[in-house]
């Protein structure tokens, strides 16, 4: 059902913003805020689980494991997850997608970047051959049809818009549900991609890893074919900032009182503590009168 919901989002005529989530509590917060889709990034998993940067330390198995803890808090809200390049071959990409689907993930974005680095001014310096990338997408579309495939290309940074369009077209023809032209932030360039690929939904991101990017109005993005905007690490960075202020306040003053915090009662409600402590709620069927 959630994959169908994600496909409906991509088929609509509006822009949907998908914030990053990284644990059951942030998933519950995103659901409570009314989001229609959410995102799990490899960078977030690497930082939270390993304390490492997004430099290839995290495999899809770990992302799927993390996702399985988030999905119960999301209900019918689709979760999109980072699948890197699918991990080296079409067969491994299929295995990854199957593992993601078992974890409850609704959609994956599959990249065509090669070796590291993944972010910064030299990101995208290595791009895998277009045929190899398209073969992975085709394998996913054929063998894991229940998962939504978003084909990401990192060609723009080093090969420009023309190569980006060529790759987006090839990936759409291979069976991708949407294309993700990473680094294409200019509205006119997005329009050119849209005109070259009529009917193909576009996905973009607003990751802080990409530096300062223009904030474009949703109406303009929708007219340029954008249907989904990912915000992979915004909530994680906000949480880290809040935590750093609390730690500093405790170190300096012996109290976190100066720092704005969620009330304890709100936290326990979000985490389901009241329900967990209610024996009737845990062990008695919902429609049974007691």
Would you give an account of this structure?
By secondary structure, the chain is of the alpha/beta class. The chain has two domains: 2-238, Phosphoenolpyruvate-binding domains (TIM Barrel, Alpha-Beta Barrel); 260-290, no CATH class. Helix content is 49%, strand content 12%. It contains 13 helices and eight strands. It has helices spanning 2-11, 24-32, 42-50, 60-74, 90-102, 130-143, 156-173, 187-196, 218-223, 234-253, 264-270, 273-277, 279-283; strands spanning 16-19, 38-40, 79-82, 107-111, 148-153, 178-181, 202-205, 226-231. A five-stranded parallel sheet has the order 2-3-4-5-6. Strands 1-8-7 form a three-stranded parallel sheet. α2 crosses α4. The radius of gyration is 20 Å and the shape is globular. The model is unreliable at 116-124 and 279-290 (pLDDT under 50). Keywords: Lyase. GO terms for molecular function: oxo-acid-lyase activity.
């Amino acid at each position: 059902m959630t994959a169908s919901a994600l496909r409906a989002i991509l088929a609509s005529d509006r822009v949907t913003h998908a914030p990053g989530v990284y644990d059951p509590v942030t998933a519950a917060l995103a659901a409570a805020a009314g989001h229609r889709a959410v995102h799990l990034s490899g960078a977030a998993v690497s930082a939270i689980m390993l304390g490492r940067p997004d430099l290839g330390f995290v495999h899809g198995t770990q992302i799927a494991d993390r996702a399985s803890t988030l999905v119960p808090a999301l209900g019918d809200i689709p979760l999109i997850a980072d699948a890197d390049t699918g991990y080296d071959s079409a067969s491994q990409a299929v295995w990854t997608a199957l593992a993601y689907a078992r974890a409850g993930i609704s959609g994956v974005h599959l990249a065509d970047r090669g070796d590291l680095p993944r972010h910064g001014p030299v990101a995208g310096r290595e791009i895998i051959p277009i045929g190899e990338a398209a073969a992975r997408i085709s394998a996913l579309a054929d063998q894991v049809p229940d998962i939504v495939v978003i084909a990401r290309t990192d060609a723009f940074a080093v090969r420009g818009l023309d190569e980006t369009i060529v790759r987006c077209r090839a990936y759409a023809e291979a069976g991708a549900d949407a294309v993700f032209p990473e680094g294409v932030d200019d509205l006119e360039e997005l329009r050119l991609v849209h005109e070259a690929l009529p009917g193909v939904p576009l996905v973009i991101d607003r990751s802080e890893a990409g530096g300062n990017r223009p904030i474009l109005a949703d109406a303009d993005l929708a007219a340029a074919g954008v249907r989904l905007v990912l915000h992979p690490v915004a909530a994680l960075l906000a949480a880290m900032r809040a935590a750093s202020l609390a730690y500093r306040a405790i170190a300096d003053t012996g109290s976190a009182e100066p720092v704005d915090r969620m009330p304890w009662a709100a936290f326990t409600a979000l985490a389901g503590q009241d329900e967990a402590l209610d024996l009737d709620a845990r062990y008695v069927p919902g429609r049974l009168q007691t």
